[in-house]
Amino acid sequence: MRSLRRYLVTVLIALFTLISFVAALQSYKQSAIRAEALFDQDLQIVASSLLQQHQVGAQQQLGLALQVWQKGQLLYRSALAPETSMSDAEGFSEHNFAGKRWRVYRQMPNDELTVIVAQPLQQRQQLADEVITASIYPVVLSLPLQAILIWLVVSKALSPIKRFSEQLASKKANDLSPVLLEQVPAELDQMLKTTNQLFARLADAFEREKRFASDVAHELRTPLSVLQVNLHNASQQWHRSGISDPEGSMLALQAGVERMSALIEQIMLLNRTNPEHFQARTELLDVAGLCRQVVADWYPQIDRKHQHIELLGLEHLSLRGDAFALRLLVSNLVGNASKYTQPGGTIQLQLSATPDKAILVVQDNGPGIAPEEYHRVFDRFYRVGGDRHQSGTLGSGLGLAIVRDIVMLHQGEIGLSQSDFSSGLKVTVELPL
């Protein structure tokens, strides 16, 4: 198992050493070439001076000014040298003549002979710049190459982290399978193991939660069914025996059992529609037809309350989704509207669409919900006003929580607002097509 740190340090040091060596070698070659040219130029100057001294050929304009004096008499001067002495100071000095600034060197081998050599400072600076440029030019050129190589090396070294991140990002909410990578580096190995252990613990926890809720609901169903039957039989016996129930104890007991039974059914539905472990079976559905089926299912209760329900908008609207979940969504919205709307009230469903989403609006003219409660009613087991809801209707507080889970499962959006009627609640569900 390799180490990212060791790999990066080793490869980068090797690359830097190689590139620096190549750049230094190239700088050495360029500097050597330039120095050789300077030495050759010095030879040409000396040869030219000797030729001029013996009057052979024309004078060379090589950039240096030369003077030779003997006992105060000028024996020789180059073309750039003036007729007067270029310097009276022994050694190096700087002087102005011929419209330039010169670096002058004066040497007296003996009391009779004096040699003076001068070079323009601008020429010296130019030569120095050329030597320096020749030295650093290969190094500068190597910088982009170093940057590209570093980027490639680092990208290759970090590719396992990138693959790890991509696998995590591509996971769905209900996918808790372990992440598998090939050639995992030492630094990432522990993170990968910890992540997979976390997924395993989460999978176990979700499975236990799912099993617990399902088992509890199933276990409670049987005794509740028996209790309902016994209550019904007891009520019939009381009626035949002429036993009165002025306080309504039997009715209250039956209502409590029915509420508990409805709560268990809602818990099972909530557990089943939880996006974290719901296995959706998507298919092409006609939402309008599904809404008509739900309205038909709820119509007996709606008719008993003398309520009016209508379905407006598109007669056909197709989208891909889970049939069971979407039918449950519409059923909960219509059921809530019917339960909490007063007798004789109005319930309205409206279907519309945009190029990329389907829109279902369910609204009523019931008492509605205060805007400050909108964010709370999606919480599990939360009911506005608790059990003392102003409608007097018993409920579990799970209906809208189930609706929200189904909307999340289909990657849609849900919102609450004031009804278009004088009172009531408006629920808007938007689902991608």
TrEMBL record:
The keyword Nucleotide-binding applies. Keywords: ATP-binding, Kinase, Membrane, Nucleotide-binding, Phosphoprotein, Transferase, Transmembrane, Transmembrane helix, Two-component regulatory system. The keyword Ion transport does not apply. Its EC number is 2.7.13.3. Residues 215-433 form the Histidine kinase domain. One of its GO terms (molecular function) is phosphorelay sensor kinase activity. It is an enzyme of class 2 (transferase). It catalyses: ATP + protein L-histidine = ADP + protein N-phospho-L-histidine. This is histidine kinase.
